[in-house]
Design a protein that fits this description.
The chain is an alpha+beta fold. It is 17% helix and 50% strand.
Length: 150
């Protein structure tokens, strides 16, 4: 009787420990640039695989590799320079900001996911200048701040 109980306990211990090992092995498989998590059915992609830089133009894609997330020009040192845009996964432009050698410099516009304007204003050497306007998600003007008068 004791032998049967001992055998049963050892068998249960062995089965549960093997089950955990198998589960962990199935949970994550590693490939060259990504990790596949079978339980959650998600693919985690290395961010470097989503970025292209050609002739000074930087493009970052969403994981589907079809839709652009960010795009803009870079200077010779790899800093943001010129117009930079951010897009939703549906391809809708959500923001546009001008840069000069890595600093915000020029107009900036940010939109809500529904396409309505969230805020707009201007930068000079990384600092807000002039009139900045903020809107509600319905498009109603909420605030106006003149940074030249602060």
């Amino acid at each position: 009787m004791i032998f049967k109980i001992l055998l049963l306990l050892i068998s249960l211990f062995y089965l549960t420990s093997c089950k955990v090992d198998v589960k962990n092995k199935e949970k994550k498989k590693s490939t060259k640039n990504s990790i596949i998590n079978k339980e959650e059915k998600k693919i985690i992609i290395n961010k470097k695989d989503l970025i292209e830089i050609k002739q000074g133009k930087f493009i970052e894609f969403y994981p589907n590799k079809k839709t652009i997330k960010f795009q803009g020009q870079q200077d010779k040192k790899g800093k943001r320079h010129g117009k930079w845009q951010y897009f939703s996964e549906n391809g809708i432009e959500l923001s546009m900001t001008m840069y000069q050698h890595g600093e915000k410099h020029g107009h900036s516009i940010v939109k809500y996911p529904n396409g309505n304007l969230h805020y707009s204003g201007e930068y000079k050497n990384g600092k807000k200048i002039g009139l900045w306007k903020t809107y509600s998600i319905q498009g109603e003007l909420i605030t106006e701040i003149d940074y030249n008068n602060l």
